[in-house]
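Ticket #4471: structure export looks truncated?
Reporter: QA, pipeline team
Priority: medium

Steps to reproduce: submit the single chain below to the structure queue and open the exported record.
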Amino acid sequence: MILYFADLLYPRKACAAASYLGAPVTLRPIDVEQDEHKSPAFLALNPNGLLPTLVDGPMIIWESNAILCHLGRKMRSDFWPTDERQVDVIRWLSWDAAGFGRYAGELYFQLHVLKRFNLGPADDAAVTHAREAFTACAEILDRHLAEHEWIVGTSPTAADFALGAPLPYADEIGLPLAAFPSMRRWHEQMNALPGWASPFDMPRHTRTSKREPS
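Actual output as written to the record:
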């Protein structure tokens, strides 16, 4: 498997999952500053021109949450459960995409991406709205985590890796973790997992040199 990535929010969770699961994945860095993600060769893999993108033989998978599920299935891990928990994981992945992750992603874009790539100032109104909406979602998640060790079941699943993705950037983008003790406890658990804290530091032999996607 080849995982095309850059050191950004959504690729982070896919790389972290690959590392945590010990998946036989080769990381292929994409230089977004040089618009490599917009090259014809990359667009042939992912017409959205977005990262991450996973190639597994004839399968090409884009959307980070789908990649999480595929990696869990590939490794036959409870990371992607096959019993009734699977529906609950899908529920939380959907909730993440529609709310929690959506608003965290907006804060990440406004307060990290724009600055990092010199794309102009943040939109203060967008930041205020996203932070308020994220906080409302965080209240729901914190209540859930007050009664559950992990998002679903008794071990980490794709739901934890999806929902936890923005938390390493909390200080930079102003996520109000101080107000949510159960989320802080959960984040500390995530930081203790193999591969989570440093998802891009996979062994050198698992990386390809920069070349056109093939």
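Status: closed, not a bug. The export was complete when the record was re-opened. Leaving a note from the reviewer for reference: The chain has a mean pLDDT of 94.
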